[in-house]
Amino acid sequence: MTLHLGKGRSLASALVTSLVLALSVLVAPAVTAPAEAATPITVSQAIGQQTGATQTVRGYVVGQPTATSTVVRSGFPSDYALAIADSASQTNTSSMLYVQIPSAFRAQWGLRTNPSLMGKQIDVTGALSAYFSHPGMTSTSAFALAGGTTPTEPPPTGGTSPWDATYYAPAVGRTGTALRTSLHDIIDDNTRLSYDAVWTALKDTDQDPNNTGNVIELYTGRSISKSSNGGSVGNWNREHVWAQSRGGFTTSAGPGTDLHHLRPEDVTVNGTRGNKDFDNGGTAVSGCTDCWTDSDSFEPRDAVKGDVARMLLYMAVRYEGDDGFQDLEMSTVSGSAVPRIGDLDILLQWNSADPVDAFEMRRNDRIHAQWQGNRNPFIDHPEWAAAIWN
Length: 390
Known about the structure:
Layout: H1 2-27, H2 43-47, E1 54-67, E2 70-72, E3 81-85, E4 97-100, H3 106-109, E5 121-128, E6 136-145, H4 176-187, H5 195-205, E7 207-208, E8 211-216, E9 223-225, E10 236-240, H6 244-247, E11 262-266, H7 267-273, E12 277-278, E13 283-284, E14 292-293, E15 297-299, H8 305-318, E16 329-331, E17 340-342, H9 344-353, H10 358-371, H11 377-380, H12 384-389
Parallel strand pairs: 4-6, 12-15, 16-17
Antiparallel strand pairs: 1-2, 1-3, 1-5, 3-4, 5-6, 7-8, 8-9, 10-11, 13-14, 14-15
Helix pairs in contact: 8-9
């Protein structure tokens, strides 16, 4: 009897165990196969999806954009951008996507350094948003040759300017206040010019690359004779991008004569801009195509919005109040008191939307080599603006 009961218990135990196992199979979660990598979209799809969303796009490298409707296919001026298309032979810029190349990727993916990339099919990942006022990709986070090559990730410290190992060495790899302080210490020992010397300097720094007898006016974009400088209607004069009255400085040697924010400009348009902040909107400015103004702000043409932003950011870092001049600061409020100017949020957008071009780079080089001995770090590293102010 005992043996029988033992066998009964063993059989019951086995049945219970089998039932539990069966139920566990029924309720076990389904195993999901690993998700496959997203399939890259085409350039034409990317052009139609300019929503700011992050996407991977596949296309052929067809050149370097230098303006909204201009893509060069040789003699590349920089490593800052490239254009891709669905066909390697595409020449119509409306069928191209302009891709921003952050500094961390320029050594490997910039066309000045790597012209052999022309015609190669690549995958790029970033935000689908306007670049050079054209369908584009910004905040690019990965580049890869099409066909499975692992995307290139940026080095931890970033920075590929030719000046990184020397001029900017103390700043590379830093962010926030530490970066701002390092940059100030690097750029603050510049040569100070007289206001009269600024006339001569601007004829060099802002020379028209297509006509060496002319300069290019900042806001109008007009090419005008170097000898047409002065204060009369139709002349060009010395525009302080950081307006004197907004910085509390004069035209004595110092911030009022710093070439990094002084540009040739039409006398009348200069007067229209006055000492206003920079912002979007308003009514059209006479004699200045694609310029707008209202009671307290001025909007320049798209092609120089980034230039304006980078000049003002330079001034805010260069002049920190430690050398007898005002501590210049950026503001997010229009009409703010001396020594502030803005609108910072808009200017940071302009810095991203209008990349550094060959004219701006040459200008930075000339000021450094010939006139002041210092550089505008936001031309060499536009991404440092966000590293400090965002």
